[in-house]
Amino acid sequence: MSDLVLTERVDNVLVATLNRPEARNALSPELIDDLSDALREADADPGVRAVVLTGAGTVFCAGMDLKAFAKGGGRFDGLVWFFRDGIGTPVIAALNGSALGGGFEMVLACDLVVAAEDARLGIAEVKRGLFAAGGGTTLADRVPLAVALEMGLTGDPVTAAQAERAGLVNRAVPADRVREEALALAGRIAANGPLGVAMTKKLMRERRWAEPDEVLSVFRSKDAAEGARAFAERRTPVWNAS
């Protein structure tokens, strides 16, 4: 993997950093491929119980690299799988700065969002004769329809404070606290039973009740037994995701 995506382990949390600050972390085909690999590897690693996705510099992600797109080189669909389906591991977007276009669609694929107070979020594709084909048109699943339509049809961004009021951002904090807040949130998730966390995310994302076999797969697991024992013994559970 190149240095376009930097990865770091903090206990059971993987921090993945988009590393093209000179290009406002725009999504080039190469960065897309590297990020796709990093996300798949994190999801396959049982030791990673949460992912924090952030950017280098002062912008989270300015969206698709339009200069590379205009040249017609490379493919830009390498993250469609993540935008569409996400991963089983909880992902927190740590917006060190603005998230626009494809960068905003990446935020929609994440589960929780911590944003710098000066960050702006938006899908500006219509301003370039395009539309938000990477999932931006699902925005109404996350915010009221009128808010989604205004953002999508005007292409105008909203502030982090507006996004927080709309329920799109979990926390809007000073820029120098974004990483700290995101890691703290990720740590609280990672401390919980991984099977229960994964099933909770799956069912909430799919907006449905659990099927009987899904209930049994968690409630009869070793982790469920460990959670009960640890509660009775007044100690911290030791999970093994089984």
TrEMBL record:
Which Pfam families does the annotation name? ECH_1
Checking CDD domains in the record gives: crotonase-like (cd06558)
Please indicate if the UniProt record lists GTP-binding as a keyword.
no
Determine the domain of life of the protein's source.
Answer: Bacteria
Q: Which GO terms describe its biological process?
A: fatty acid beta-oxidation
Q: Which UniProt keywords apply?
A: Lipid metabolism, Lyase
Q: Which InterPro entries match?
A: ClpP/crotonase-like_dom_sf (IPR029045), Enoyl-CoA_hyd/isom_CS (IPR018376), Enoyl-CoA_hydra/iso (IPR001753), Enoyl-CoA_hydra_C (IPR014748)
Q: What is its EC number?
A: 4.2.1.-
The record's annotation in PANTHER family points to: (7AS)-7A-METHYL-1,5-DIOXO-2,3,5,6,7,7A-HEXAHYDRO-1H-INDENE-CARBOXYL-COA HYDROLASE, ENOYL-COA HYDRATASE-RELATED
Family to which the UniProt record says this protein belongs: Belongs to the enoyl-CoA hydratase/isomerase family.
* Protein name per its UniProtKB record: Enoyl-CoA hydratase
